[in-house]
Amino acid sequence: MTQPLPSQTPGDATTLQTRQDKLVQAQATYEWDWSWPPGCATLSELPVCEKYPPDFVALITSVSILMAKNHAATTIAQALLAGPSALALPPLPPPPHPTSADDLHANLFAAAQAFHQHHGPRDRPATPDGYAAYYATIQQTPIVTRQLKDPACTDALFAWQRVAGCNPMSLRQIKGLPADLRLSEDDWKAVVGTGSLAAALDNGQVYAVDFTMLHGVPATRYLGRQKYVCGARGIFTTRERSLVPVGIQLEPGGPVITPRDGTKWAMARYFLQVADANIHETMEHLGRTHMVMEAVGVSAHRQLDGDHPLWLLLQPHLIGTFAINASAKTGLIAPKGVIDQVFAARIDVAASLVRLALDGFVLQDCAPTKEIAARGLNDVAAIDYPYRDDILPVYRAIERFVRSYILVYYPDDATVGADTELAAWVDEVGSPIGGALRGIRRVETVDGLVEWMANIIHVGSAQHAAVNFPQFPFFSWGASVGGAAWGPPPGHHVTEDNLLALMPPWDCIFLQADTVFQLASVHYTRLGDYTFQDTRLSHVVAAFQADLATIDAEIETRDASRFLTYPFLRPSLVPASINI
Asked: What are phi and psi of 221, to 5 degrees?
């Protein structure tokens, strides 16, 4: 069967009225709410048709069972260490497992929270390496294996996370240091060993991450324990294309701590990791993927007829999105939820960071081809940057596919400009009483429509994969990163005990690690899988799938020789939609 052409065709009055009636009904079903996170457009109520499907509930249940096995194994191990009296304690009660869509919506993170609240020990291991005890029945992650095998590579693992971790979008090339960051030529030579800081800046060999927006953010107490966060900056350079850390400043105008500073450097490194985690979770992950797709998707429901070709292209990229966002809104980022318990920033501040992320986001400018170049990181010869190397071919494949699809229905700019449903959709995405995304421009040309749809698909598939699936490999390792620091920044005299005091108590690292294990273990839907009825699209889909298969093989080959594995953007592992 052939899909109808865009908008009001066929154009008789009866058909137009039918389409309008359907949209009025959709607008009554998909209503806006901007209350939480404040100013972010979300659904006021999850429609029945958007609830978790049974196979997704079963998938989450299987993951929670794996977590329960790990809980039991670690509890037994702790009891054995504590002696016979601990072994006599009553066994763990069965963890809560979801049994329905409604149950899952209300209790998505229940298994992790139940163990944290009732069974997780409140102390911490005797040494940072002791956090490896978390991986009792769950496979130890590559960063942990590498760290334990080669403790001397800690700085390299720290730098790697700027280019291939959970948040590889914060690194940028800089041509000058901030005025209040005093890194001397002597510091540079002592750390780098060759050249000068001035020459490196001139040659584009200096890079930075800047989380100073967190300076002064109120941190909370949890279970009587104070949390800490710093507005940290990090300065890096390259050595044979590999990123190398040079210095960290924990607050604007503060001293620069370098790798020469021993334990103080290890503490500064941990604080920068904490800052990065807070920005990643609220801004890059929740804000610039989940909330963007909610704004786009709800607006599409309200303005595009169910037979509109743009809706048929978009729909596979919205499967599960509204359900997982509703769970996040009422659980993950709700007061007393996981973010509130584990992360440093007060929950109202964390929610405000989500809106701040959207204030600086322009959907039509978010293509990685533009975004990476804007950060000065498009030179393959200058820096090893796995996120760039993998996301760009995936995005270009999406762009080629979208153009082929669009041209089936929109042969020229005039057809795009005449589509009133498209215009209404774009307008609502940018309306302050609609999707509330900033900087939305009219879509009136074929090129503009290709950019619009390609960027949406990119955000809902590959970009979300890049910020979601690395979470367990990196955020489960308590010796590397916590959602908060649990001790103060380094003073004049520090010891290994001060470093260990920054790291999460066992109960909090269990909640942190279990939550990201759940988020990173669910691969539901796959990029490139479409079931269009229009036979004109068969070769378009086949070409896209072949393109993705080629890219998948190329990434697999690249990954085999990398410092640490980075498989997260292999198309075979990229879901089509944000559903976890």
From this structure: -100, 150
